[in-house]
Amino acid sequence: MKWDLHQAIEGCLRHGIGGIAPWRDQLEAAGLDSVARHLRDAGLRVTGLCRGGMFPVGSKAAWQKVIDDNRRAVDEAVALQADCLVLVTGGLPEGSRDLPGARSQVRDGIATLLEYARPAAMPLAIEPLHPMYAADRACINTMAQANDLCDELGDGVGIAVDVYHVWWDPTLEREIARAGRERILAFHLCDWLVPTTHLLLDRGMMGDGVIDIPLIRSWIERAGYAGFYEVEIMSRDNWWARPPDEVLAVIKERMATAV
Amino acid sequence: MKWDLHQAIEGCLRHGIGGIAPWRDQLEAAGLDSVARHLRDAGLRVTGLCRGGMFPVGSKAAWQKVIDDNRRAVDEAVALQADCLVLVTGGLPEGSRDLPGARSQVRDGIATLLEYARPAAMPLAIEPLHPMYAADRACINTMAQANDLCDELGDGVGIAVDVYHVWWDPTLEREIARAGRERILAFHLCDWLVPTTHLLLDRGMMGDGVIDIPLIRSWIERAGYAGFYEVEIMSRDNWWARPPDEVLAVIKERMATAV
User: Fold this and answer.
1) Contact B169 A131 (CB under 8 A)
2) What's the rounded Cα separation, in Å, for the pair A71 and A114?
3) Which chain B residues are Cβ-neighbours of A170 within 8 angstroms?
4) How far is A8 from A2, CA to CA, in rounded Å?
5) Which fold has domain B5-254?
6) How far is A200 from chain B (nearest CA, A)?
7) Domain A5-257 belongs to what architecture?
8) Which residue, among B169, B30, B27, B16, has the nearest Cα to B86 in the 3D structure?
9) At B252, which helix (H) or strand (E)?
10) CA-to-CA separations, A109 to A67, A149, B99, in angstroms, rounded
11) Tell me: the pLDDT tens digits for B125-177?
12) CA B95 from centroid of its chain's CA atoms
């Protein structure tokens, strides 16, 4: 995106988009207080703050730093009156091959953060990421894992479902039903392109790829989800290179025809 | 690889490697009869023929063509006295978003092929591929799916386990144990690089990535697997660009230190 967060808020208003999920780097660049004020004045719903997480680390000192940063993320989410704080859990620590260990750290990290997030009434949304990110972004890679974590950790934690990450999963329908209305805190849309030329930055616009979005949407709605549909298209060479107003117009059109 | 199949056979002999799993395009280029003779003279074990599969199609005519081609693959595997025919199941047909439908076609395709492979005593090895290939290469993406297929289809079908495709799977240990000695027909090695720069052609040499190969090997051995360890490193810009003799020497060394 070529817009800063303030311009994005204005863009949403111009295109009749009722909610937004800011990223923290954009938030920091634009300033928390002024963004919070702008959002309130605009009457825009903050569907989530992206993102906390990144729990697995290699040392005790690093651990405390991660927890502190996650608490700040909770504070920011509260300041924005966000519906949830989205957690990208983190992958393997530098130099590590211990995937079970990383997954334990994620569980411990969320458990620790919950002690801070629950009194603040800020729900945490675990976002399972596609298995191709298991090493470097998130070692929680399926809805089943996220559901298991929710079972274990209790109140205050749910799931952000992104079709890009979970569309391939043969247990998806079952695990969405298992998650149910209470746990599904966000629903993210984009599409999987064939071919995909970059692991991170080649996502597609809804309708341009192979994901049966209406099918997954039907499962999400059957589970009782009645929240926003969030569009997140990391696309360096295509959508990010276009004028943002054009992108929002296409999104609006595709929401009607491809979702 | 810069070698043709005959040169690869000689390379294996030179480096004290006791088995090989040819790809069919290489086999066709070198000639089935002369390769079969060469392999017999060399005393090389054929651990598998790569590959049959690619079942999901968009029309009845295409279906018959796929089945016919898979039967030829069985014939070739028999001619080479291969231990199994590896199946890369195929993804979505051109223009389709019907993933459950593709998975049904895979089941039907293997069931049909089994009628031909069983009398020929040629085991079929389903290779679950990483979820990032669900659209264009294989819609069977987990060991659990492969085990379910084996449960359904009965004798004559097993699984090829490739660490690259399954290392991220939180159910891997359980599903390897479930597969057991009877079903595990092949064990493929390479490594997952961080960062990975290409979805297909940027695999790593064992030890250069983040997969805990000794751990997965321990699960495979505990399941009773006593077959070959096959190294398959699709690496256009690194290992494929080096002299093949150098690559084989590194493989030998890494088999001792990183597996």
Assistant:
1) yes
2) 10
3) 103, 141-142, 144-145
4) 9
5) TIM Barrel (3.20.20)
6) 10
7) Alpha-Beta Barrel (3.20)
8) B27
9) helix B244-257
10) 7, 11, 35
11) 999 999 999 999 999 999 999 999 999 999 999 999 999 999 999 999 999 99
12) 26
Token output for A10: 């204005």
Give me the count of residues in chain A: 259
**Number of CB atoms found within 10 A of residue B81's CB:** 12
With an 8 Å Cβ cutoff, is A201 touching chain B? no
Tokens 């991220």, residue located: B168
Report the relative pairing of strands B184-189 and B157-162 from DSSP bridges: parallel
What is the pTM assigned to this prediction? 0.97
The chain A residue lying nearest B140, using CA atoms, is: A170
Complex ipTM, two decimals?
Answer: 0.96
Question: Which residue ranges make up each domain of chain A?
Answer: 5-257
The closest alpha carbon to A30, from A50, A8, A45, A13, belongs to A8
A192 in contact with B at a CB cutoff of 8 Å? yes
User: B97 at the A interface (CB within 8 A)?
Assistant: yes
Instruction: Determine the 3-state secondary structure of B86 from DSSP.
Output: strand
Question: With contacts defined as CB-CB under 8 Å, which chain B residues touch A99?
Answer: 167-168, 212
Instruction: Provide CB contacts within 8 A for B6, sequence distance 6+.
Output: B30, B34, B35, B38
User: Could you give the CA distance from residue A147 to residue A184 in angstroms, rounded to a whole number?
Assistant: 10
Q: Give the integer Cα–Cα distance in Å for B130 and B188.
A: 13
CA separation, residue B63 to residues A58, B93, B108, B117, B146 (Å): 52, 11, 11, 17, 21
Q: What is the pLDDT of residues B13-72, one digit of tens each?
A: 999 999 999 999 999 999 999 999 999 999 999 999 999 999 999 999 999 999 999 999
